[in-house]
Structure formats: structure tokens, C-alpha cells
């Protein structure tokens, strides 16, 4: 009997995430999918999922569809009753050799007059893209690198967060930073170094470096400091 | 309880009133039920017409009184829809369009057994968007409510053509127009799309009820002949 109660308690805890929808509020999500030459991409699958907890993988598929001959899509869904529930728009879940993109953490406040018009989504072929990994090598343990960002070059990230959860990614110090960029191009990154030699008055310096991303699927660049 | 007793008593004594009163009688207590199939023909460019396909469904209504050939009836229609366009309807398995209404009918007797009854009415509307476990495709087991509702009001107009086959049962066919105005908040260009439903209903069904009026008229006719 105790085992059954324990099992039911675990089951309840696992399935406690509930998304309620409001049939009298309809949200419109629309956008356009194009390729690298700005041509419309038809028949790309689009999905909208709802979720209440960004740290959980529990999601409810609330709508799906395809882009039309002009690359346009429009999906209409009942709004989650809780305005703090998130929506995610997934473009090209199937893949077919092209990039999959995802617009995450969309909240009701991101809609204007019940409509969210996404900017045109550029789907690059996977073979056109390289995963740029930027890491750092310590030459002086008093220095820290942070706020690494791509300042020049064609970038096409897989995921875009409307409402990033937690602290800002770029202001944190990470061991590695990842960027999805086009192959065979010059790119520039900027970053900050903070000198903690005098911990009471750390000094921050801004740097910019440029380099060429080659034809490899993954390209690693190391910041020396 | 007292009201119910009085009501039953009135119904019980109704035949004897009919026999006693030779003067024209206008008011009849006459319980009458209609059970009918509904073939929905959705009109216009709106959610039900555009993103769904209506199925043959059913309705019922009943009336208790007749006064100068007028009847007041209350009824309920439930019309089922299958979703045909998920991009507009979301991952809904099927919808139920529920119409609760009151209507006023007027009876035009054409022959002894055949009559036509035009009607007008109004009531409340509700669409239930039903998500079955198959359509709630949860990637990782999130729970979602299985019925989402949209409410509104409706007006209706049409007619029934009744053919009496015996003292109690009549066949009837009918054509009616029902228009609902539904509550919705959405982008301006979709207000009427989700906020309106227009339908032509084709009805076929049975009317069940003993006609006190016919009995009264027959008695009156007999009395006149004597």
C-alpha cells in the first residue's frame, strides 16, 4: 500500500504541469521563411508548442502547419490562460538538410494586438554553416574574459530567446561561447577582459579581434590573455 | 411542488374543459416534443465554415402550450465538427457547437394532417473545442485541458413542415438559419472569422405529442353537427 501511495505521489509530482487555454482569445503567429538568397522556401514545417516551465522539457504541441508557395506561414492558436506560460515557434523541425530554428520563451506581452509577426527566418543549408567555438586560454590567472559577442560577420543562430531566463548569457564568464556562422568569411568578435590584480578596483578593457572562419563544420578560436 | 400539482391538475382536466366549452378556445396545454437530425450547411468565411467540416448531428425541442396557433418552445442542438485546418483550429480533435434556444412558432394548417410552422428564436451558443489524448501530442507529458470553450448568443429563423401520421406522431422536415455572435479577443482581421457562425440547418425528425387542440376541434365539430 505504501508503495502505491508513493507511486501515486511521484506520478502527481511529475504530471503537475498543466497548460490551460482560453478559447475566447486567439493569438496569431505569422512569418516568412527564406533561403540565403532571399528566395521564399515553401513547405517548411512550422510548429507551436506551449510550456510553463523553461527548465522542464514538458511541452504541448498546440498547432502546426507549413509555409505556402510564397514562404509565408500563419498559425492561430487559443491563448494560454496563464500569461506567464511560454510559447515556442519551431521552424523546420524535419530538417531536410537545412537549419532548424526555434523562437523560444514567447510570452503574451510579445504579441501586439494579439499578433506576433516574426521577422523573416533565413534557413541556411547545414553545409553552409559552421559552429564557431570561442574559448580562452589563461596566461594570467588575474584576468577574466566575459561578454564575448560576434560584432561582424554573417551569423544564423538556431535559437532565439524572446525572454531569456536567468542572467544575461553574454555578461557571464563561460568557458566556451558558441555561434552559428557562415563558412568562409571574416568575422569579428568583441569581448571584455577584467583585471582582478587589484580586487578592490578591477579594470575592464574592451577588445576586438578578427579572423577567418574556414570550411570546417566546427571552427574553434582561442582568445589568449 | 404546489405549482407542479396545479400544473398536472390542469393537464388532467384539459380534455373535460374541451368538451364543456363549446365557445372558441385559444389556449391549449399540449406537451409536444421534436427530435430531429440536423444536416449543417455552414455559410460564409468563418471558423466553423472554413476550418471544420460539419457532421450530421441532432437536436431536440419541446413546447407545452399553444395559444392562438402560437407556440413557445425551448430546444437544444448539438452539432459535431471535424477539424480540417489545424493552422486555424489548433490541435483540436473535434468541436461541438451547442445551441440552447427559445423559439416562437406559428402554425398554419394546410390540410387536416399537414401544417407549416414558421419560427423565430434566440438563445445561447457555445463551441467546445475537444482535444483528445491523440491530439494533445505532448512531447514530454505536459497536461493540457481537453475542452476549451467559446461562448456567445444566437438568433434563428425558419420553418417546419409537419405531416401527422397518427394521433401522436408526426414526421417533419425543416429548414432554418442560425447565426451566432461569439465572444472573442483576437487580431482585428480575425474578429469576425472567430466571432461569427452562420448556418443553414436542414432538419428531419419526429414530432411526438397528443393534440388537445385537434381533439377539441373534433368535439366542437361533432357538437355543431348535432
Record field, number of beta strands of chain B: 11
Cα gyration radius of chain B (Å)? 22 Å
Counting DSSP H or I runs of 4 or more residues, the number of helices of chain A is 1
Structural class of chain A: mainly beta
CATH topology of the largest domain in chain A: Immunoglobulin-like
- Share in β-strands of chain B: over 45%
Structural class of chain B: alpha+beta
What global shape of chain B is seen?
elongated
Instruction: Assign the CATH topology of chain B.
Output: Porin
Strand order of the largest sheet of chain B: 1-3-4-5-7-9-10-11
Rg of chain A computed from alpha carbons, rounded to a whole number of angstroms: 22 Å
CATH domain class of chain B: Mainly Beta
CATH architecture of chain B: Beta Barrel
CATH architectural category of the largest domain in chain A? Sandwich
Q: What is the residue-mean pLDDT of chain A, rounded to a whole number?
A: 87
Order of helices and strands of chain B: HEHEEEHEEEEEEHEH
Element-by-element helix/strand order of chain A: HEEEEEEEEEEEEEEEE
The beta-strand count of chain A equals 16
Which segments of chain A are poorly predicted (pLDDT under 50) over 5 or more consecutive residues?
7-15
3D structure, described in words:
The complex is a heterodimer of chains A (225) and B (226). Chain A is mainly beta. Chain A folds into two domains: 24-122, Immunoglobulin-like (Sandwich); 126-224, Immunoglobulin-like. Helices cover 6% and strands 51% of the residues of chain A. Chain A has one helix spanning 2-14, and strands at residues 18-19, 21-34, 45-51, 60-66, 72-80, 86-91, 101-106, 115-117, 121-122, 129-137, 143-152, 159-161, 176-182, 185-195, 203-213, 218-224. In chain A, the strands form four sheets. Chain A has a five-stranded mixed β-sheet with strand order 4-3-6-7-12, with no helix packed on it. In chain A, strand 3 (45-51) and strand 4 form a beta hairpin. The longest helix of chain A has 13 residues, at 2-14. Chain A is globular, with a radius of gyration of 22 Å. The termini of chain A are far apart. Chain B is an alpha+beta fold and 226 residues long. Chain B has helices at residues 2-20, 47-51, 86-89, 191-195, 212-225; strands at 27-43, 52-54, 57-67, 70-83, 94-106, 108-109, 114-130, 143-144, 147-164, 169-182, 196-208. Helices cover 21% and strands 55% of the residues of chain B. Chain B is elongated and about 75 Å long. At the A-B interface, strand 1, strand 2, strand 3, strand 4 and strand 5 of A face helix 3, strand 8 and strand 9 of B.
Amino acid at each position: 500500500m505504501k508503495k502505491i501511495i508513493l507511486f501515486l505521489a511521484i506520478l502527481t509530482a511529475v504530471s503537475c504541469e498543466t497548460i490551460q487555454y482560453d478559447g475566447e482569445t486567439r493569438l496569431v503567429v505569422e512569418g516568412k521563411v527564406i533561403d540565403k538568397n532571399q528566395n521564399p522556401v515553401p513547405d517548411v514545417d512550422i510548429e507551436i508548442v506551449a510550456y510553463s516551465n523553461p527548465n522542464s522539457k514538458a511541452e504541448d504541441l498546440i498547432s502546426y502547419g507549413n509555409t505556402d508557395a510564397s514562404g509565408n506561414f500563419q498559425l492561430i492558436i487559443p491563448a494560454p490562460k496563464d500569461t506567464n506560460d511560454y510559447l515556442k515557434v519551431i521552424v523546420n523541425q524535419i530538417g531536410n538538410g537545412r537549419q532548424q530554428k526555434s523562437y523560444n520563451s514567447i510570452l503574451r506581452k510579445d504579441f501586439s494586438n494579439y499578433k506576433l509577426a516574426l521577422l523573416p527566418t533565413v534557413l541556411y543549408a547545414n553545409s553552409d554553416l559552421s559552429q564557431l567555438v570561442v574559448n580562452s586560454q589563461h596566461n594570467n590567472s588575474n584576468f577574466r574574459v566575459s561578454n564575448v559577442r560576434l560584432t561582424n560577420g554573417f551569423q544564423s543562430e538556431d535559437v532565439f530567446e524572446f525572454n531569456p531566463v536567468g542572467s544575461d548569457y553574454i555578461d557571464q564568464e563561460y568557458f566556451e561561447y558558441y555561434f552559428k556562422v557562415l563558412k568562409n568569411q571574416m568575422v569579428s568578435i568583441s569581448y571584455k577582459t577584467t583585471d582582478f590584480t587589484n580586487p578592490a578596483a578591477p579594470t575592464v578593457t574592451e577588445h576586438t579581434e578578427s579572423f577567418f572562419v574556414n570550411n570546417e563544420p566546427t571552427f574553434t578560436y582561442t582568445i589568449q590573455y | 411542488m404546489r405549482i407542479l400539482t396545479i400544473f398536472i391538475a390542469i393537464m388532467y382536466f384539459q380534455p373535460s374543459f374541451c368538451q364543456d366549452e363549446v365557445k372558441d378556445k385559444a389556449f391549449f396545454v399540449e406537451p409536444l416534443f421534436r427530435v430531429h437530425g440536423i444536416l449543417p450547411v455552414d455559410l460564409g468565411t468563418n471558423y466553423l465554415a472554413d476550418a471544420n467540416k460539419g457532421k450530421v448531428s441532432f437536436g431536440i425541442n419541446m413546447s407545452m402550450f399553444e395559444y392562438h396557433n402560437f407556440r413557445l418552445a425551448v430546444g437544444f442542438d448539438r452539432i459535431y465538427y471535424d477539424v480540417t485546418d489545424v493552422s486555424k483550429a489548433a490541435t483540436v480533435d473535434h468541436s461541438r457547437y451547442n445551441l440552447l434556444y427559445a423559439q416562437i412558432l406559428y402554425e398554419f394548417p394546410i390540410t387536416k394532417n399537414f401544417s407549416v410552422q414558421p419560427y423565430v428564436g434566440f438563445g445561447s451558443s457555445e463551441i467546445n473545442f475537444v482535444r483528445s489524448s491523440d491530439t494533445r501530442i505532448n512531447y514530454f507529458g505536459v497536461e493540457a485541458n481537453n475542452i476549451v470553450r467559446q461562448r456567445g448568443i444566437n438568433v434563428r429563423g425558419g420553418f417546419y413542415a409537419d405531416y401527422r401520421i397518427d394521433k401522436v406522431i408526426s414526421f417533419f422536415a425543416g429548414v432554418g438559419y442560425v447565426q451566432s455572435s461569439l465572444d472573442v479577443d483576437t487580431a482585428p482581421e480575425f474578429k469576425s472569422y472567430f466571432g461569427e457562425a452562420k448556418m443553414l440547418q436542414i432538419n428531419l425528425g419526429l414530432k411526438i405529442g397528443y393534440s388537445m387542440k385537434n381533439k377539441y376541434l373534433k368535439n366542437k365539430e361533432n357538437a355543431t353537427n348535432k
